């Protein structure tokens, strides 16, 4: 841990870069805060990135973000641990070459001009938590972390992506690799760009968290032996960045991280974190009550604020409209402005770096497409237990279980696969007709745009067959492979933008790339250990916080099916536009 990692101010990166090996004409007027390094020109260079020149031929390394295990990487490369991170990256590239991204973890963008190979490498962390946007012009490649800085530079076309906007109207995210600008692309998670001297751009995958369809699950005994040490190690890697607090919801995900962090701090003779919690301001829910019990048990200060504090007399729609120009993309979350107030209040209390339990639902819950696998193998007793677990943990009604779980995630995947094998053209036409009837007439009056949108919507469905045209051996894995991408990387980059803009850095141990690879190789049966939702976490937290009832805590879920949210949205709109 170097002093600059924890002490650096957290702000939204506003730099952007041009890569061009061609001679660029000069207007004779110097642009302030611009750095020229080889074929890279970095604008607003002091606003979020580091640059290092290295090697015999003046190669260049650019870095933005933070790394886990930074000290260890520096030592292994023979670099002083207090050196700038860009210099550490330069030495690591000299050692690992193109494999450098496989050695790094954290939340970062890295760009390396290899002067000897005459090519540029641009990559980011495996889960894409630090975004990379890029656009090609006739004479250069432009890239950066902040799509607003890139699009406002005047060097990249700002033509809107009509398909992305139409998808947003339907409450979908842009397609993988696309943005709301027609000519600006996003780099996918686990991918890197290679750019030749002649500006030929190609993407390559360097990491995939998901196992192959036929890869066996890890044995339960191995999972039980490795789970707790692996999770503790992920928490320790986050603790090296010196968080001051933890976002504490009161659910088992964040409470487990709080308990492991407290154990780490005690072992290192350090004081406790601050528990930062948001509440409705109404009667305390079970999770809100748990927040106070956990902070008391761990000796933590509890910083609590409510919706009334954040709103300060305004409503969600007003607050969200006020910040819409600062968001990286259109949003369908009408209360985003309210939560920006929450983040800013936290930063104002000098709590800038926080642990969070985000990711627990992504990796430690069990997707309901597990039902399709249980049905296919006629494991009816296990199916009954899983349905009972779903009902207990999430509070589902029998009707919801029958519709969402048994039909949508159980029977229908088998019907889809059979239909795709027997009559794929008929199946494609059926789904296209259904979408065509569902689309509002005003959304795509342009027939060509409508046809393209229909094709995209049909393609968004989880594929009925594998890439080799076979019935999936694991519908559970098959569904994860489909849904993990466009939603997750768009959510990650929005969270990155808002957090940095507000001066808050969120560290999620559950998103540690080593853990994610491990978690995705754990069978659904083991994830539901002792027939409990997130069964692997419960023994870990119960051993450290006995008597709080966390081993039997139910996941809170809304029972009004969105009705209350719709009323709040309607009232907010009527107030803004009477």
Sheet with the most strands, sense and barrel status:
6 strands, antiparallel
Rg, nearest Å:
25 Å
Mean pLDDT: 90
Uncertain spans: none
H/I helix tally: 24
Question: What characteristics describe this protein?
Answer:
single chain; 578 residues; alpha+beta; 6-stranded antiparallel sheet; 24 helices; 44% helix
Report on this structure.
- This protein is an alpha+beta fold.
- Helices cover 44% and strands 14% of the residues.
- It contains 24 helices and 17 strands.
- Strand 4 (50-54) and strand 5 (59-67) form a beta hairpin.
- Helix 6 packs across helix 18, helix 8 (252-267) packs across helix 23 and helix 16 (398-422) crosses helix 17.
- The longest helix has 25 residues, at 398-422.
Secondary structure elements and pairings:
Blueprint: H1 3-7, E1 16-19, E2 34-37, E3 40-43, E4 50-54, E5 59-67, H2 70-76, H3 85-96, H4 100-103, E6 106-114, E7 119-124, E8 133-136, E9 141-144, H5 147-151, H6 162-169, E10 185-186, E11 191-196, E12 201-205, H7 220-239, E13 245-247, H8 252-267, E14 274-279, H9 286-298, E15 301-306, H10 307-311, H11 316-323, H12 336-348, E16 353-355, H13 360-364, H14 370-376, H15 380-394, H16 398-422, H17 424-438, H18 447-459, H19 475-483, H20 486-502, E17 505-507, H21 513-519, H22 524-527, H23 537-544, H24 563-576
Parallel strand pairs: 13-14, 13-16, 14-15, 16-17
Antiparallel strand pairs: 1-3, 1-9, 2-3, 4-5, 5-6, 6-7, 7-11, 8-9, 8-10, 11-12
Task: Describe the structure concisely.
The chain has 578 residues and is an alpha+beta fold.
């Amino acid at each position: 841990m170097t002093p600059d990692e924890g002490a650096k101010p957290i702000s939204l990166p506003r730099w952007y870069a041009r890569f061009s090996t061609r001679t660029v004409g000069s207007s004779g007027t110097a642009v302030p805060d611009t750095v020229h390094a080889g074929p890279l020109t970095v604008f607003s260079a002091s606003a979020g990135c580091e640059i290092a020149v290295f090697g015999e031929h003046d190669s260049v390394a650019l870095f933005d973000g933070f790394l886990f295990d930074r000290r260890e990487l520096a030592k292994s490369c023979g670099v002083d641990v207090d050196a700038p991170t860009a210099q550490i990256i330069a030495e690591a590239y000299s050692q690992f070459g193109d494999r450098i991204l496989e050695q790094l973890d954290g939340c970062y963008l890295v760009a390396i001009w290899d002067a000897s190979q005459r090519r540029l490498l641009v990559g980011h962390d495996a889960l894409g938590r630090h975004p990379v946007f890029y656009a090609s012009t006739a004479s250069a490649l432009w890239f950066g972390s902040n799509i607003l800085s890139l699009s406002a530079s005047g060097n990249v076309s700002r033509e809107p992506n009509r398909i992305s906007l139409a998808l947003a109207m339907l409450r979908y995210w842009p397609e993988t690799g696309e943005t709301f600008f027609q000519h600006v692309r996003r780099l996918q998670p686990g991918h890197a760009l290679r750019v030749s001297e002649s500006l030929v751009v190609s993407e390559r995958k360097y990491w995939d968290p998901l196992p192959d369809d036929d890869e066996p699950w890890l044995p339960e005994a191995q999972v039980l032996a490795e789970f707790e040490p692996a999770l503790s190690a992920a928490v320790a890697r986050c603790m090296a960045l010196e968080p001051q607090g933890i976002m504490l919801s009161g659910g088992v995900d964040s409470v487990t991280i709080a308990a492991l962090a407290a154990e780490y701090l005690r072992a290192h003779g350090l004081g406790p974190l601050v528990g930062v919690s948001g509440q409705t301001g109404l009667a305390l829910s079970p999770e809100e009550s748990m927040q106070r019990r956990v902070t008391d048990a761990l000796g933590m200060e509890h910083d609590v604020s409510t919706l009334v504090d954040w709103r300060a007399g305004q409503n969600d729609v007003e607050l969200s409209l006020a910040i819409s120009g600062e968001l990286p993309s259109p949003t369908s979350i009408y209360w985003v402005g309210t939560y920006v107030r929450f983040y800013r209040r936290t930063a104002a209390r000098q709590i800038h770096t926080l642990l969070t339990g985000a990711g627990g639902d992504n990796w430690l819950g069990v997707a309901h497409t597990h039902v399709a696998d249980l049905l296919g193998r006629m494991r009816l007793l296990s199916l009954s237990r899983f349905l009972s677990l779903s009902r207990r943990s999430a509070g589902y009604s029998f009707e919801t279980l029958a519709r969402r779980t048994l039909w949508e995630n159980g029977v229908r995947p088998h019907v889809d696969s059979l239909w795709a094998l027997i009559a794929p053209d008929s199946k494609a036409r059926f789904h296209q007709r259904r979408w065509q009837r569902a689309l509002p007439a005003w959304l795509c009056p342009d027939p060509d745009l409508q046809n393209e949108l229909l094709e995209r919507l049909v393609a968004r469905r989880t594929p009925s067959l594998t890439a080799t045209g076979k019935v999936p051996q694991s519908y559970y894995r098959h569904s994860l492979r489909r849904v993990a991408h466009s939603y997750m990387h768009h959510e990650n980059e929005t969270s990155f933008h808002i957090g940095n803009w507000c001066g808050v850095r969120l560290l999620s141990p559950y998103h540690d790339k080593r853990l994610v690879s491990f978690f995705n190789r754990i069978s659904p049966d083991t994830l539901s250990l002792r027939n409990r939702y997130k069964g692997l976490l419960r023994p870990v937290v119960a051993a450290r916080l006995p008597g709080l009832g966390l081993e039997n805590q139910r996941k809170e879920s809304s029972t009004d099916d969105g009705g209350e949210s719709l009323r709040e949205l309607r009232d907010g709109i009527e107030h803004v536009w009477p």
